[in-house]
Amino acid sequence: MKNILLVKGESQYGAMRNYIDEFASSLRKLGCNTCVLDGLSPGFPVRYQQMLSTFAFDAAVDCNGVLLEGYIESLPPNAIHVIYTCDHPRKLNQRLGQVDARTIVFSCDNGFCDYMGRFYPMVGHKGFVPLSGSFYPKCVPYGERSIDILFTGSYEDPQKVKEQALGLFDGVLAQFMASMLKDIIANPQHTISDCLARALEDYNLEIDGQEFNELVGEFMDADRYARFYYRDKLIRTLLGAGLEVHVFGNGWGQFHSEHKERLVVHPGGLYAAQKALADAKIALNVLPWFKDGFQERIASAMLSKAVAVTDSSKFINENFKDNKELLIYALTDMEEVAERVKYLLSHPKEAAEIAEQGYQKAQSHTWGCRVRQMLDMIEEEFGVPFIQEGQGRKLELEVRYPNLRSIVLDAINELSNMVSFAEQDLAKIEDLSQTDLKALTDKFEYFTQLAAWQMNGLDMDKFVWDCLQGCGGTVPDYVLRLFVMQCKALMSGLLAHENNFRFDTIKSQEEQIRKLQEELAAKAAEG
Question: How many CB atoms lie within 10 A of CB 21?
Answer without folding.
Answer: 16
